[in-house]
Design a protein that fits this description.
The complex is a heterodimer of chains A (388) and B (938). Chain A is mainly β. In chain A, 5% of the residues lie in helices and 49% in strands. Classes of the chains: A mainly beta (388), B alpha+beta (938).
């Protein structure tokens, strides 16, 4: 059935191609699945999602869940099952061991390994604070971004190291997120920009808003767009950064900022970001899922859900010009996005009303010649996307 | 710009000036720079004449070795932090905390009592006592002395003398300043570094090489001789009296006196020589500047040409001119050969622990803990054919599937020895986690799994590259592992149960590793079980068996008479994850310390070893499964695991073994099994057809059973317990802890539960028990044991003496977080400052009796007294508890008297709300982390 729908979509596109202008356009996810409490999730407020081979780990406001992509079945764990705390705000998977590390909002840090939950919190361990927003695995170390600084736990030696304003350039200690790149650990800090930790030298470097203006960006592309940073996501050799006041990209030398006013971003209030490559990143806004799909041309696709029903739209934009609008009978589950993960061609979107699974059949990176839709009365062309 | 730089430099300099300097140890010779001579009170000479100055050297005596043995130490006393803790100064300091003038071999120096002196050891500061004390000078009282001069069992056992009377010693040690003191220094001839000819280099230069047992402990022998005090003697009243008769005012400055009391004092010297060393090496062997280099000294002829003299009678008689002087006896007395006289080695045992069959079936490798070797046995010839030296405490052993390599875990060294089977040589050594135990490869021999029983993890190595690839989290104390017949999973037993709060049920984990991704797939909980050790898969792979104890720790141990306290049995772990538990005890006979299990090749029988009763139980597998399956679910879960009657239905035979059988290895081709009798150094041969012992292979251990070995045998045997339900080892595996909290006495259920404490290094930490009411080990292991634990006639006096002796010698592992002399990590260094702090973060003074170091005084980090730290609970009889020692504290969780603190952190974050267990509530989280990091180094 799924295959049939895809074939239908492609056939429709092919038919339209005959009549429409062919242009270089990005891939558009038109097939969305919703994973909600109806499917077995313990809660629809999804805070974290992490793909792990055939498994997708889902952190919710009331428990941990695991989606088996092969069977579609969901298994979940609550406090009665040993989950140390009900609110799971962050997930990372140790690729070597398969252990799943959980950040718990108010409950500290947990490891789910072979069905066993291990629990570290500020009373029984060296974890600096129990409000954990982000978690990341770096070799034998586990990093936790907490509301009172960052903690690093060496799983071999058992040593805990705390990073706060005492030993890191944190003007504020409210750590929002942590991610691991090549030889670096990136921490997003509320009010202190992005921090970069060099693993080899144990040195920190901070990236602050050069113009120091909280409300406005005086000089475009002069640095990070704002110091209230919500996430930093390294991909290839760049770092994608989200903030509550826009997004940006850093290639080690140049910054590039993005705002709703000059890009396809659905909104400047961005909860999170996930870089897919140096050209593509997904931004979790409060008004939809926005993905820059081709850095060089500033081409974006923003996915939203309609106000009523399950339907949604994907709007393809370059700068602020709408190139295409694809209507879908099933869009993303909700427009308030908290988290993403990308798994091969697929994308998983954590929203305030369930998990969205964007099936990326035929996905291609960047741009590709394909039919461009004939514009409707005022703007974009409309393609009927295949969906369920 | 230039002005800016100047300003910055000035600011930096000001900051440096303002920052309080960390005092460092300068060594006794710096103190001697002023505290020498009658005008100040001859303090330096008094010290040189005291036993304090010889304290380090004394550790080289044979008595020192015996004391170390009785303290569970394996390193030479002069390299042991425990011994150095009272026999040396600044043993715990990092290199940067010691000035170049400091020498550890000077023993108990001024700064051990008065504090590191760099900031107060100047004339200007020392002239003002208050200023000196502000700069770090401590003026200790007698209580301070007691920290070291407290009765130590190991010392009393060897010397048969009580500790020094501190009051008396205090009087003897008093070294007041003279009235109107005037500083004086040791005087020597000017250093003549530019002058040709041989010069005195000083005994410290000689001592750089001539120390330690490999060179006859020569420096220590000199230090303990009268020669080393020859210069100091000149300050004694008797010397002054003799000098006065010769009109010599100050014999320490008299050439006539120094001629024999410090021959180098008036001779050409290097800066390293000082007169105070008295009659040292060069007094007899000639000034050493030209021969003292290592290159010259390695060639006797070259050394002789460079001035090394061989002293003879005349050398001695040059000074010892008394008619009564017996030169031959004196020369004999001070003889200091490079090679120490051979010491009777005593009995050498093997203690076989584990076995592995070479894939071609022709050889069996047997790890022997006591001899640090692998004994190679030819099972067909029933003989030992070789022995391979490996690392310390070899434990686990396995072969690569192709039979070319064998892997041996060395529990003491934290290594795996990789043995080339063809050459029987160790060809590589792998670093492991803490205390590696079980070891196994996967079916293809690509990955090697090593269980680290102290760090609770499993290290996975790539066999081709011998590189570690990952660390898997295990349960508590991973012990044995077994590959399923289909090779898809590896089960791992964990010896200790998971932490459970006081009086709550506990369980143990069996870790399930999926070999496809070499990751943990599952963790099976075995309810109410602990000490899970032996493990084997049924040949058909339907289930595996693991040995276990079921310890009723929350019930008074006096309930032993009702068949309760510790039961022994098996976990039946089904392939689908389900678990059944059965006992192997019978109503009138326990099956103490079930240690290993194996199946006959046809899977019909399971063989289970009881290390505590010296037997192997033959379990009819079909009958056991039949019992399990016929019971209703409820009975299967609640009755069967506790029922002493069911074993009679499936245990078809008990076969007597040698002493302490700990491992079973089935030889399929021979239809035999080998039983490793750990404490009589043999392998028993069990015929699997007749189920009878048909032979024995000797591994070469001594047949003489000395006191220590007898004690070890008694410790591991359950004969002393009612119905032989358990042995000492059942609660103290490896002489350590099982992580359990016990209700011991018959004072009501739940009253005064106590955390199990380690026996490692126990002798010097009396009194015993958490309430500190047992003054001696003999009471602890004698009458008390019988009344509260075993409910049978106690050990005989001879047995008790042997058990006590063995218990004191239970070795303690080296500290994994800080080898002797290693630098501290930044976190550990900060933690040390917190441990030693005297003020809170906001500057309030912490009362002396509430500082960490006051009660946890080195080297054991206990003052061996009782204190109330606010941890008394409603069912405790008292709030005063014995201060536990902190050595290797990281491996004896849980903590506090009843084990209520699961981690070190919880001691302070949860159980110290009123700052009665040290002042800790002002500390920030990172400070507490630092403190914990430091505690791990103790």
């Amino acid at each position: 059935m799924r295959h049939l729908r895809y074939v239908s979509l492609m056939a429709a596109l092919t038919c339209l191609a005959g009549a429409a202008e062919v242009a270089k356009l990005p891939y558009v996810y038109t097939k969305w699945k919703h994973i909600t409490t109806a499917d077995g999730l313990p809660n629809d407020h999804i805070f974290a999602v992490k793909s792990d081979g055939p498994r997708v780990w889902i952190g919710t406001e009331n428990g941990l869940a695991m989606l088996d992509k092969r069977t579609g079945k969901i298994k979940s764990w609550g406090e009665k099952d040993g989950l140390p705390w009900r609110v799971v705000t962050a997930i990372d998977v140790d690729k070597k061991t398969g252990d799943v590390w959980l950040g718990l909002f108010g409950g500290g840090l947990a490891r789910f390994s072979g069905g066993r939950f291990d629990h570290w919190h500020q009373l029984n361990s060296g974890l600096v604070n129990d409000v954990v927003y982000g978690v990341a695995v770096q070799d034998d170390n586990i990093w936790a971004a907490t509301t009172a600084g960052a903690s690093r736990f060496n799983t071999v030696t058992g040593e805990w190291t705390i990073f706060t304003e005492k030993n890191a350039p944190m003007e504020e200690i409210w750590n929002y997120n942590v991610a691991v790149g090549k030889g670096k650990v990136y921490i997003a800090v509320w009010g202190s920009g992005m921090l970069e930790y060099d693993i080899a030298s144990n040195r920190w470097k901070d990236y602050l808003d050069p113009d120091g203006e909280m409300e406005i960006d005086l000089y475009r592309d002069d640095g990070i767009v704002h110091v209230i940073v919500t996430a930093a996501s390294p991909a290839d050799d760049v770092v994608w950064v989200s903030s509550y006041f826009g997004a940006c990209r850093y290639d080690g030398r140049h910054w590039r900022g993005y705002y709703n006013q000059d890009s396809g971003l659905a909104d400047d209030f961005i909860n999170n970001t996930k870089g897919r490559s140096a050209d593509e990143a997904w931004f979790a806004t409060d008004k939809g899922a926005s993905a820059i799909t081709d850095f060089k041309t500033n081409t974006w696709v923003t996915y939203t859900r309609d106000a009523t029903g399950k339907g949604g739209k994907a709007v393809v934009m370059r700068d602020r010009d709408v190139l295409e609008t694809v209507e879908m009978p099933v869009g993303i589950p909700h427009n308030f996005i908290i988290n993403y993960d990308i798994d091969g061609n697929d994308v998983f979107v954590a929203t305030a009303k369930g998990l969205g699974w964007g099936v990326g059949e035929g996905y291609y990176p960047g741009l590709k010649q394909r039919p461009k839709m004939v514009a409707k009365a005022k703007g974009a062309a409309v393609t009927k996307g295949g969906a369920e | 710009m230039r002005n800016e730089l100047v300003f910055v430099a000035m600011a930096a300099a000001a900051a440096l000036t303002a920052a309080p300097k960390k005092p460092v140890y300068v060594g006794v010779r710096v103190c001697a720079g002023c505290h020498t001579g009658r005008k100040i009170g001859d303090q330096y000479s008094k010290w040189l004449h005291s036993k304090h100055s010889q304290a380090y050297a004394k550790l080289a005596l044979p008595t020192g070795l015996e004391m170390a043995k009785l303290s569970g130490l394996r390193t030479p006393p002069q390299e042991s932090t425990i011994c150095l803790g009272c026999h040396a100064t600044a043993w715990h300091a990092e290199d940067w905390e010691k000035d170049e003038t400091f020498r550890i071999q000077d023993g108990v120096q001024c700064e051990l009592c008065h504090g590191p002196g760099s900031e107060y050891a100047t004339l200007e500061v020392m002239r003002d006592r208050q200023a000196a004390m502000k700069a770090g000078l401590r003026m200790p009282d007698q209580e301070f002395c007691v920290n070291c001069h407290v009765e130590k069992g190991s010392h009393v056992a060897v010397t048969n003398r009580p500790p020094i009377d501190v009051k008396q010693g205090w009087r003897e040690l008093l070294h007041p300043l003279a009235s109107n003191p005037a500083p004086g220094a040791v005087e020597s001839a000017p250093a003549l570094t530019g002058v040709k000819g041989p010069k005195y280099a000083g005994v410290a230069e000689c001592g750089k090489c001539h120390r330690g047992p490999m060179l006859g402990n020569q420096w220590s022998r000199w230090k303990l001789s009268a020669h080393s005090g020859a210069w100091a003697t000149l300050a004694t009243p008797k010397a002054l009296e003799i000098a006065a008769k010769k009109n010599i005012a100050d014999p320490q400055r008299s050439a006539e006196c120094l001629k024999c009391h410090s021959p180098g004092a008036s001779a050409p010297r290097l800066e390293s020589f000082t007169a105070d060393e008295g009659v040292s090496c060069e007094a007899c062997h000639g000034p050493g500047s030209d021969y003292m280099s290592d290159a010259v000294m390695r060639d006797r002829r070259s050394a002789k040409l460079a001035g090394l003299k061989t002293p003879d009678r005349e050398t001695c008689l040059g000074c010892h001119q008394s008619k009564d002087f017996n030169v031959d006896a004196a020369m004999k007395k001070i003889a200091h050969p490079t090679k120490l006289p051979p010491v009777a080695e005593g009995e050498r045992y093997k203690t076989p622990i584990r076995m592995a069959l070479r894939p071609d079936g022709r050889e069996v490798y047997v790890t022997c803990e006591a001899s640090g070797s692998v004994v190679v046995v030819d099972p067909a010839a029933r003989a030992k054919v070789a022995e391979i030296r490996v690392g310390g405490d070899p434990t686990g052993v396995t072969f690569a599937p192709n039979g070319r390599l064998a892997f041996v875990t060395n529990r003491l060294d934290d290594t795996v020895s990789v043995v080339d089977v063809a050459s029987r040589k160790v060809v590589a050594t792998l670093k492991t986690g803490n205390e590696p135990h079980g070891v196994l490869t996967d079916r293809d021999g690509k990955l090697l799994y090593v269980l680290n029983t102290s760090s609770n993890d499993i290290w996975v190595y790539d066999v081709a590259s011998l590189k570690k690839t990952k660390t898997l989290s295990a349960g508590n104390g991973p012990w044995s592992l077994a590959l399923s017949p289909d090779s898809r999973r590896i089960l791992v037993t964990n010896m200790k149960s998971k932490f459970a709060p006081v009086r709550e049920r506990f369980s143990s984990e069996v870790t399930v590793i999926g070999t496809d991704r070499a990751a943990v797939d599952d963790r099976v909980n075995i309810s109410d079980a602990n000490l899970m050790m032996g493990l084997a898969w049924h040949p058909r792979g339907e289930f595996a068996l693991a040995t276990l104890n079921r310890t009723k720790a929350a019930i008074p141990m006096t309930r032993l008479l009702q068949g309760w306290t510790i039961n022994n049995g098996l976990a039946v772990m089904w392939r689908d994850g389900g678990v059944d538990e059965v006992l192997l005890d019978e109503p009138d006979m326990g099956f103490a310390d079930a240690s290993d299990v194996a199946f006959t090749p046809d899977g019909r029988y399971a063989l289970v070893a009881s290390a505590g009763t010296d037997r192997v139980a033959v379990v009819d597998v079909a009958k056991m499964i039949g019992v399990i399956r016929r019971l209703p679910e409820q009975e299967r879960r609640t009755v069967l695991p506790n029922h002493l009657g069911y074993p009679t239905e499936f245990v078809v035979k008990h076969v007597a073994t040698g002493r302490n059988p700990r491992a079973i290895l089935v030889l399929p081709a021979a239809e035999q099994a080998l039983i490793a009798n750990s404490l009589d150094d043999s392998l028993g041969i069990l015929d699997l057809g007749k189920m009878e012992m048909v032979g024995r292979i000797e591994l070469g251990g001594s047949k003489t059973i000395n006191r220590q070995r007898l004690g070890e045998q008694l410790f591991h045997n359950a004969f002393v317990t009612f119905h032989r339900q358990y042995s000492c080892n059942s609660c103290h595996p490896d002489g350590h802890v099982d992580g359990m909290t016990y209700d011991i006495e018959a004072d009501g259920i739940g009253v005064a539960p106590v955390d199990n404490r380690t026996l490692r290094g126990i002798l010097d930490t009396a009194p015993f028990k958490w309430e500190g009411t047992n003054p001696s080990l003999s009471r602890q292991c004698g009458a008390r044991l019988a009344v509260f634990f075993t409910r049978l006639a106690p050990f005989t006096p001879e047995q008790l003496a042997a058990v006590d002796y063995y218990v004191t010698t239970i070795p303690r592992p080296p500290n994994r977080y800080r080898p002797l002399g290693a630098a501290l990590s930044p976190a550990q260094r900060r933690g040390k400052a917190i441990f030693e702090r005297t003020t809170t973060n906001d500057g309030r003074t912490i009362s002396e009796n509430n500082r960490c170091v006051s009660c946890h005084f080195p080297p054991y980090y206990t003052d061996r007294r009782r204190h109330d730290v606010g941890t008394k609970l409603s069912f405790d009889r008292t709030g005063d508890f014995d201060v536990p020692h902190l050595n290797n504290i990281y491996d004896s969780a849980p903590y506090l008297h009843n084990g209520m603190a699961a981690t070190l952190e919880e001691i302070w974050t949860v159980y110290n709300p009123d700052d009665r267990h040290g002042v800790t509530n002002d500390m920030t989280k990172d400070q507490l982390n630092d403190l914990v990091e430091f505690l791990r180094t103790l």
